[in-house]
Design goal:
Layout (H helix, E strand, L loop, with lengths): L5 H12 L4 H23 L8 E5 L5 E3 H15 L4 E6 L6 E2 L9 E9 L10 E9 L23 E7 L3 E6 L5 E6 L4 E6 L10 E3 L10 H12 L10 E2 L5 H11 L2 E4 L12 E2 H14 L3 E3 L16 E2 L1 E4 L1 H17 L1
Parallel strand pairs: 3-5, 11-12, 11-13
Antiparallel strand pairs: 1-2, 3-4, 5-6, 6-7, 7-8, 8-9, 9-10, 13-17, 14-16, 15-17
Helix pairs in contact: 2-3, 4-7
The structure holds 6-O-phosphono-alpha-D-fructofuranose (P6P).
């Protein structure tokens, strides 16, 4: 049977459940097209003259890779003219990007990490683009949106998705009615529906965490990982496997595909107190995708999608994946809190 394309899927969603407005459908198709261009630039590697770092640093104080900046520009240019957005925000930009007055403005906000995992670019490991769509508040005064308009809890997201640039280039998307996956058909240049209903297994024996941070973790994380490492003879009664790609998109994609728990917890370092990953354009979109696929996503004790943001680039601890495993880690945090 002929597989559906992204356009067909979005048209059906628009007809079926009104889950997708015409504006959101255009938005997603434009972002998906921009991800094709990013994936093309990434795949050129050294041949494209885009590897390596720039002298500049981004708002996070991280050295920018050439591809970080190029990917950001691709997303900005692709989304400026369509009339579907009021503004954009990116990991690579300190402040929000308003749609220039020469273009019509829409009723949505787009947030993105244009190239997540960029420390892996030069070593040819899978990286990705993460995006989140919010409603743009309407101001009776007619004033432009501002940064505060972006500070909406993740539960209000209209859509979320990521592209993963790996052995296959894939687009994983939710518009609030489950999670679907598309594989890029490079010959036709189209996104083809290959995963109709992605579900995360509730149980797992695979954890993902950067073990080199162990001495900094809070007690419940140390206890949980210790119990995983104890295997069959330990309190969890089963042997665990470990994976850590250090590319959130790749680690989350694995978990969506075969289950697992991903952990980048806050820790006891001054730099780790709030966590490493960014709430608005990493944790929130990934949490919406994971929950829509039957998983769970917490910051240790709270559901990430319920967190009320107070800053555009704020960080948060992230524990997400197979529902039963995430619930176990949440219980370890509650036990620790009750003993304080
Ligand atoms: P570490 C990539 O830089 C990133 O933001 C996520 O994609 C990834 O999960 C994490 O940081 C890796 O961090 O400390 O293991 O290098």
């Amino acid at each position: 049977m002929k597989r559906k394309t992204l356009t067909q899927y979005l048209v059906e969603q628009q007809r079926k459940e009104q889950a997708v407005s015409a504006e959101v459908r255009l938005l997603i198709e434009i972002v998906a097209r921009a991800c094709k261009a990013i994936g093309h630039a990434v795949s050129k590697g050294a041949l494209g003259g885009v590897l390596g770092s720039l002298e500049s640093e981004n708002v996070q104080g991280e050295v920018q890779k050439k591809l970080d900046v190029l990917s950001n520009e691709i997303l900005l240019e692709a989304n400026e003219w369509g009339g579907h957005l009021a503004a954009m925000a990116s990991e690579e930009m300190e402040t929000i990007h308003l749609i220039p007055n020469r273009y019509p403005k829409g009723e949505h906000l787009l947030l993105f990490d244009p190239l997540d995992g960029s420390s892996n670019i030069d070593v040819n490991v899978s990286i990705g683009t993460i995006f989140s769509v919010l409603h743009a508040p309407h101001h009776a005064s007619g004033r432009e949106v501002d940064e505060d308009d972006f500070l909406q809890a993740g539960a209000t997201q209209v859509a979320a998705g990521y592209a993963v640039y790996g052995p296959q280039t894939m687009l994983v998307l939710t518009v609030g009615s489950g999670v679907v996956g598309f594989t890029l058909d490079r010959e036709m240049g189209s996104w083809v529906l290959t995963e109709e209903d992605i579900r995360i297994p509730e149980e797992t024996t695979e954890f993902a965490i950067n073990m080199s941070n162990m001495r900094h973790w809070e007690p419940p994380v140390k206890r949980y990982i210790g119990d995983c490492l104890a295997g069959k003879t330990g309190p969890l009664g089963k042997d665990y496997n470990m994976r850590w790609i250090a590319s959130m998109v790749a680690d989350v994609h694995r978990i969506l595909t075969r289950g697992g728990i991903f952990m980048y917890p806050r820790d006891e370092r001054p730099s780790g107190k709030a966590g490493k990953l960014r709430l608005m354009y990493e944790a929130n979109p990934m949490s919406m995708i994971v929950e829509q696929a039957g998983g769970a996503a917490i910051d240790g004790t709270h559901r990430i999608l319920d967190v009320q943001p107070n800053a555009l680039h704020q960080r948060i601890g992230v524990i997400l994946g197979s529902k039963q495993e995430v619930e176990r880690v949440r219980q370890y945090h509650l036990d620790a809190a009750s003993q304080e």
